[in-house]
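hi! just following up on the protien thing from before. the input was this:
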Amino acid sequence: MPVGRVGTVTATHLADDVIPPTNRWYSSLAFAANHCPVYPYPIAFLPAAAGFAVQLPAVTASATTISAPFTGGLALSFGTSDYQVVRTDPVSVTLAYTGPDGPAARVTIAEGSPLVAVDAERDLDVALPARASRSPRAPGR
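and the predicted 3d structure came back as:
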């Protein structure tokens, strides 16, 4: 039978020595040109070149849809310029963030864990976004 190539897939965020993670909940971390969230329930994780955002998504269900939109959450910035998937296994993935000064941090997320592990590879200034001040709650609310 003749064999033909219908397209190519580029792993834009995959380290050279890592086997491409196909058909995994975290595959888009390696393959997506545009950053998109992954859902290692119970959290949602959105990578970015400079860091990441994490949230506890509100899951809703109807007769035809299960939805958990990513709406923001807690964002951390390392001042980096890119990340790569550097380690995978069936339930977890590690991203290495790098910047102009070289390696900055490794971030590991795991399916079923509410934790995000951040291992600094050098001194980091971690930036949290400013948040608008809240007015105090009235008593009894």
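The helical segments are 27-31.
The radius of gyration is 18 Å.
cheers
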